[in-house]
Here is the input.
Amino acid sequence: MTNKAVVSDPGIGKTLPLALSKPDKVIVFYDGSCPLCQKEIHHYISRDHTGQLVWDDISKNTELLDKFGITLNEAMRRFHVIDRGGNVTRGAEAFLTLWHALPVYRHLARTVEYFHLTPLLSWAYEHFARGRYRRACQRGFGNTCAIDTKKH
Here is the structure.
């Protein structure tokens, strides 16, 4: 089966032109310089059999981030996904948006919502995200790491 996923990373596929006010596809921003993030995103890409998502590696290009008013620092700190309505989701909500867009993960998203587990997922994700951001700084991510990660 051919994967029809659309990505902005030339190593994975081609960039899709978007009507940014209301994209017809879910847009997923990820840090391609993070080995863990890369592995997780490639897992999701392999499940996007219908090509309903756009995968944008923010470590290579921030043009699409800029168009949605998301700074690179914000995107490095938290996972961001744009839904089909053009709404920006962050953190755990972004994962729910992604999961709803992937048929194999829809049941997980519905289960999390049905059992009101979003606050728990948010708490766990925020703890993980702080550590991931610190590791990005240690990899030499650059001047966005000047912010104190303990306060955020």
Summary: Residues 6-146 form one domain. The chain has one domain: 6-146. The chain is about 40% helix and 10% strand.
